[in-house]
Specification:
0% strand, 454 residues, single chain, mainly alpha, 19 helices
């Protein structure tokens, strides 16, 4: 159901909107976690490590797509908030065209450059073949991933966070059964797990399209809507979308590049460390999902209210979400510190105690800095919802530089333990930049609030 986020109590709206997002994010993680658990338990630690070794490349590609589609949806949300329904349809059409071009481009380029990229990642030879086929299959199915993220972003921009969730749950369940079938029955090995991911994403796409056709009249596009003349009007609209989408995509890709740098360093420590870090990162991703969900909900809230010029609601929503995110970050940090090892032990059934100890060491270090991470999600999504792209981009560059420097320098000096501090150092740097950017950007908004009599 389409939801107007410009009316009602801000925190309540954000909470209600974020709950389906949280559940959806959990099931989104199940795509990767189910693959890892199934691969780890059925094929062993080396197969588990092969998926983990190329995970940063997978995330880089995903970050680019997610950043681009979320950026496009900001324009959709702003037009919806402004009650420009013709503009909403135009935004959907333009976003679809640009997303299709992007997916095709990355599929071709990544397929051609796959071997050089894996060499750059320093993937060990004993897991190279499995790693190659896993990521190659994912790349070949990139069109499915792109269209699911585009559809989900557009639907959320219109205030509906539940519909994508329902289909994501079904697709996640399908992914588990498909992965078991391709690995156990068809003996496709690690590549079978990747095929399951692509097919389950395709299921999500078709379900979203079917539901939109039945329940979302505002998104019903007729033939005339697609008959776009590639004139100045189209160029203006495309540039408007790219102005937000490209910096967000670049910003997300910078984060992905930073993760690749860490993985390249990590791969040099052998398969045990690769497996440990892979498990720890997946568990940490689950631990931070509530904070991520609040951030995404806040972006939709801010985008609609920015389009409606309700600036006081933006400030109220940001303050209350920030406080809630800090509380949640402390709770999740406590859980990870005290029960992280037990979770890791269940996560990799065949893991040795050495792998579990290494993974737990990572969690003991990173949990001290969850508060900074929580505020990154708040300020970054707020700025993006307002259409502000400079500070999020600068923050991402700072995060990349600090992460890369810390990963390489500290790893040389202190081994893999030093490498574990690269993430926290990057979080603190990005948080400082985004905080400065938000409070700098909010000044003219405060002025507008006063003009409104707020």
């Amino acid at each position: 159901m389409i939801k107007d986020l410009t009316r009602g109590e801000p925190l309540k709206l954000i909470l209600v909107f974020s709950i389906p997002l949280l559940i959806g994010n959990i099931f989104q993680q199940l795509y990767n976690i189910a693959d890892l658990v199934i691969v780890g338990r059925l094929l062993g630690v080396k197969a588990f490590a092969s998926v983990g070794a190329v995970a940063p490349l997978f995330f880089l590609i995903m970050f680019i797509i997610v950043g681009l589609t979320n950026g496009f949806a900001v324009i959709t949300g702003q037009r919806f908030g402004a009650k420009d329904y013709k503009g909403v349809k135009n935004s959907v059409v333009v976003s679809t065209i640009l997303s299709t071009i992007t997916a095709a481009f990355f599929t071709i380029v990544c397929s051609i450059l796959m071997h050089p990229m894996l060499k750059l990642l320093n993937v060990p030879q004993n897991i190279y073949n499995d790693a190659y086929w896993y990521i190659e299959v994912i790349v070949l199915g990139l069109i499915s991933t792109t269209f699911y993220n585009l559809l989900a972003s557009i639907i959320r921009a219109l205030g509906d966070s539940k519909t994508p969730l329902y289909f994501l749950i079904l697709a996640s369940i399908a992914n588990i059964f498909l992965a078991l079938a391709f690995i156990e029955v068809f003996k496709m090995g690690v590549a079978g797990s990747a095929v399951a991911v692509v097919l389950s994403q395709a299921i999500s796409v078709f379900l979203c399209l079917f539901y939109v056709k039945k329940k979302f009249p505002i998104l019903h596009l007729k033939k005339k809507d697609w008959l776009i003349k590639f004139d100045n009007n189209f160029k203006t609209s495309a540039l408007e979308h790219l102005k937000v989408g490209l910096p967000m995509s670049l910003q997300f890709s910078i984060i992905g590049i930073g993760i690749i740098v860490i993985q390249s360093v990590c791969n040099g420590f052998g398969s045990d460390v690769i497996a440990a870090v892979t498990a720890a990162l997946r568990i940490e991703q689950i631990a931070t999902l509530p904070m991520i969900s609040f951030g995404v909900a806040l972006a939709s809230f801010v985008a609609q209210n920015f389009g409606a010029k309700k600036f006081r609601r933006i400030r109220t929503g940001v303050i209350r979400t920030s406080i809630l995110s800090i509380v949640l970050s402390v709770i999740m940090a406590v859980i990870m510190r005290f029960w992280g090892a037990d979770i890791i032990r269940e996560f990799i059934g065949s893991a040795t105690e050495n792998i579990i100890e290494i993974a737990h060491q990572y969690l003991l270090i990173s949990t001290f800095f969850y508060i900074f991470l929580s505020q990154i999600f708040v300020y970054r999504n707020t700025l993006q919802g307002m259409g502000e792209v400079i500070f999020p981009l600068v923050a991402s560059i700072a995060e990349l530089l600090m992460r890369a420097f810390a990963a390489v320098y500290l790893a040389i000096k202190y081994g893999y333990i030093g490498m574990f501090y690269s993430g926290p150092v990057a979080w603190v740097s990005a948080c400082l930049v985004l905080s400065f950017g938000y409070y700098g950007s909010i000044k003219p908004i405060v002025y507008k609030i006063k003009q409104q009599g707020g």
